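User: Design a sequence. Structure:
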């Protein structure tokens, strides 16, 4: 491996956990919106996803610290990709949040090694499964479809 290539690999390894942390911060915020707008039949699913993303956010915060960096705090608010005025829009938002996370975790899987890579693969798998549950459809390679 050339020195330039090794430097890029190191930069990706260091940059990917903070990107995953930022995505989890935004997703936790988004699920606060989702939970307030979905109907009772999906409220439990929204709570479970919210809790799962809070746990994954905490894991990514620890990963950033393990790399010797200070984890960035969550913003007070995040821009939503579209207005969420009702339960139908909230379900679409949940699917979109999960779809976006698959791309972030795919990048982390590529950049990481060892336990962090296993954590990223689990995050990718869980986000892909939740995206299917919320949207009712799937893609062949979650996290890679946006790159085609």
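Assistant: Done.
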């Amino acid at each position: 491996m050339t020195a330039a290539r090794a430097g890029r690999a190191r930069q990706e390894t260091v940059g990917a956990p903070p990107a995953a942390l930022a995505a989890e911060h935004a997703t936790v915020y988004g699920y606060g919106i989702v939970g307030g707008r979905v109907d009772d039949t999906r409220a439990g699913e929204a709570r479970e996803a919210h809790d799962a993303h809070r746990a994954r956010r905490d894991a990514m915060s620890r990963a950033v610290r393990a790399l010797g960096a200070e984890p960035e705090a969550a913003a007070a608010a995040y821009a939503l990709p579209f207005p969420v005025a009702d339960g139908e829009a909230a379900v679409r938002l949940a699917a979109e949040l999960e779809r976006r996370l698959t791309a972030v975790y795919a990048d982390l899987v590529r950049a990481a090694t060892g336990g962090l890579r296993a954590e990223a693969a689990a995050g990718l798998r869980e986000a892909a499964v939740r995206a299917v549950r919320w949207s009712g459809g799937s893609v062949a390679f979650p996290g890679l479809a946006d790159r085609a």
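Residues 3-12 have pLDDT under 50 and may be disordered. Residues 18 and 128 are 20 Å apart (CA to CA).
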